[in-house]
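For the sake of transparency, this paper describes our internal protein records without simplification. The tokens are whole numbers drawn from a learned vocabulary of local backbone shapes. One such record is reproduced below, unchanged from the form in which we store it.

. . .
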Amino acid sequence: MVVEVGYAQAWDLETRVPWQPISVEEARARDAAGLPYVVVYRAAGREAPLEVRLVSWRDHYVGLWVYDAQGRRTCELDMRLLDDPARLLRRYSVGWNYTGPEMTEFDEACPRITMELLPDGRGQRTEEPRGKGGGAHVTVPRVRRDEHWADRPVFGEWPLLSARFHGLAEPPVLEISEAAAAADDGSGLAPATCWRPPRPAQPGSIGELFRPGVRVTDGYHPEMTIVEPRRIGTLRVPSGLLAVSGPDIDHGDGPHITVPVPPGEYVLEEAQARHTYHCEWEGSEVTRTDTMAVRLLVSEAPAASWEMALRPDDDLRLFIENQISGFDTDGATGCFADAGAWEPLLALFEKGLIQGDPDLDPDVYEDLSDSMYLLRTRDQASGGELAAFATTGDGTYPVWVGRSEAGEVVGVVVLVEGMPELLPEDGATAGA
């Protein structure tokens, strides 16, 4: 079987055509420079490609989509280049088992199997025999540790990785051909529908949650209006290392997240949104104010950028699309604290909230009311403090660090639920 191989700068997932086709020489140069490019494999007489591969060495990434005869993506493979330049980690894969030719691509009822692998040999296999929402069976994958890895082929010597899926008993003959040109708007930028390397979760417009007058929706209430941030006291961080963690679980080696800040005392805030709705019990319109996020305000300077704080053992090279890192809680509770006094502050938290010790000195333990902030503890030896706050559930909560133009930390934010969607402003559209 003869398989045509074409190169391009990108692949449009929506139209299934290459964007900005390039020659093999240009693709080779992009490969050497670490720049993104795609490789498209096609068989004569078949409208849909056999597979499309995206290479972006600067992102430590090689991705693969496999298509069936109906043009549906049936398999996704995500491989990562880590410290060994000669091999790739089979980081993530998902396969869709369409039950018939009439089933649409990514149908919610389509059975699927997902597998995640890590360099240390850990992994997880998730089988959803009835698709999303139909129940899942999670197991440890039956994959040897050495099978987590694949050899990295040199440029131009990649095999057709989907050959077995397409029923090819013999290796195909690969012939270089120029792909058909895709539409170009002249901007030089790939369309938003083009495939790109996976990115971890993005912050969205977190700063807008602290700007009065901004309109948002949480998906349940059609319109909410951001009000002035509510200030709930202060937090002392004399060590210069802020801890953000769940204080209600076994921490082992300490807090989940730490953020260096100048030693000092900082304002604690709540980002709030107000909305009006019809209350059936009262039979009238009711106005309510809900907390969207909590913030430790380090500086009044505006945040020029936001980044997700990472745990000590996090490796961004391993993050799949929209993956989060953060602190864990199984008691719907998080906290800001002075990491230098973490153990004594946590002990006071446990004595006061968990054990209900009635003899705690009010100078070291203080209950907070009418706020998402629950309590404050204080280590008398160092002056460091801990302020616990409620979340809307258990799980993992990302910690977002705002930085000024100079790169200095100006604020640390935790969304107590999800990021609401921004609504259009007067005469403009606000992005979420």
Notes: The mean pLDDT is 91. The chain has two helices and 29 strands.
